[in-house]
Design a protein that fits this description.
2 domains; eight-stranded antiparallel sheet; six-stranded antiparallel sheet; mainly beta; 23 strands; Immunoglobulin-like; 334 residues; 3 helices
């Protein structure tokens, strides 16, 4: 990045110092009486986990909808709506442009915070402590339950191009929103709420297709390999566990007129590691790791091979017919 990263403290006129909450706490809104019998409220804003994919972009996103209420003279009807601005802050890492980051130790990932008002649209937030730039003034709301203007939202986007170089682990930061009104000399902010954003350790399996063993020729073993992609943010180690639908103790089985045992093995370019039903193949034992780019597009779309084998001897002693099994592959950070 061209900007120097530094730590920024909250600042907003007439506000108490920013407060950091423990990650994943459910945070309650704050209701404060303001000047001229006005009321402002932020409520229902929960911590946000960045766990969803934004279509084909590869970006990771998370969001939450909450109530932003600003009104005057009793807050009983639409005529009591009071316009307001929204300001955002962080006690964590920021830069000269007021961008926000989530952190894992010394590693920082840029995130975009987009605030949406039902009638005023979407504004990308910056750190008010750096830019002194709140959202444009928007219409207030007199009720969290009866006024649609109250249903605002925050969307957090993590650009995909950072994932390839990110270290594995959980990234998190706490941010703060204030509802403010403009006064001479700056903003007067009379409601605030803090929320945490976190990027958990993510794993995803893609490009995995059904395996057709074909028809036995009467003499040879049947063996088919299928390649697929294992993604993990930070390209960290992964463990693989396999369960079939017809398992017996340590054996996978095809089911049909009878049962036929078969084997499952995995490889990431070296040797194959044999699986057993319900037993985890650890990263320490196998060296398996997830790619840091979704769908493994940086390595041709796949990085892992599963091999299914059935011995000719077992087939030859089984009743003729069609056999199948459903296998579930579990992949987790390790």
């Amino acid at each position: 990045m061209s900007n120097t990263l530094h730590n920024s403290m909250y600042s907003c006129q007439a506000n108490p110092p920013g407060r950091r909450f423990r990650l994943c706490a459910v945070l309650l809104g704050v209701l404060v009486s303001a000047h001229s019998a006005a009321e402002v409220e932020l409520s229902g804003l929960d911590d946000i986990a960045i766990t969803a994919w934004a279509g084909a972009t590869g970006n990771l996103v998370g969001s939450d909808t909450f109530c932003s209420r600003s009104c005057a003279r009793g807050c009983e009807r639409r005529g009591h709506r009071r316009n307001y601005d929204t300001a955002a802050y962080t006690n964590g890492v920021t830069d000269g442009a007021g961008n926000f980051y989530i952190s894992n130790g010394a590693d920082n990932l840029l995130v975009y915070l987009d605030w949406t008002h039902p009638t005023a649209g979407t504004t990308r937030l910056t750190n008010y402590s750096v830019t002194r730039r709140p959202t444009p003034r928007v219409p207030g709301a007199y009720s969290c339950t009866q006024d649609p203007n109250s249903q605002t939202s925050i969307a957090v986007t993590l650009p995909a191009d950072q994932l390839a170089g990110a270290s594995a682990g959980v990234y998190a930061e706490t941010f703060r929103l204030d509802l403010c009104r403009r006064v001479q000399g700056g903003l007067e902010c009379t409601a605030e709420v803090s929320f945490s954003v976190n990027l958990p350790e993510l794993v995803q399996v893609t490009n995995l297709n059904d395996v057709d063993l074909g028809t036995w020729n009467g003499q040879d073993d049947l063996q088919v390999s299928e390649e697929f992609c294992v993604f993990r943010n930070g390209k960290g180690g992964v463990a693989i566990r396999t369960n079939g639908g017809n398992d017996t103790a340590t054996q996978f089985n095809l089911s049909g007129p009878g049962t036929i045992p078969y084997t499952v093995e995995y490889s990431q370019g070296g040797g194959f590691f044999a699986a057993q039903p319900g037993v985890t193949i650890s990263a320490a034992a196998s060296g398996f790791a997830g790619e840091s780019v979704r769908d493994c597009t940086n390595v041709g779309g796949t990085n892992t091979t599963v091999r299914i084998s059935v011995s000719a001897g077992d087939i030859g002693t089984s009743a003729p017919g069609s056999y199948d099994d459903t296998v579930t592959i579990y992949v987790e950070p390790d």
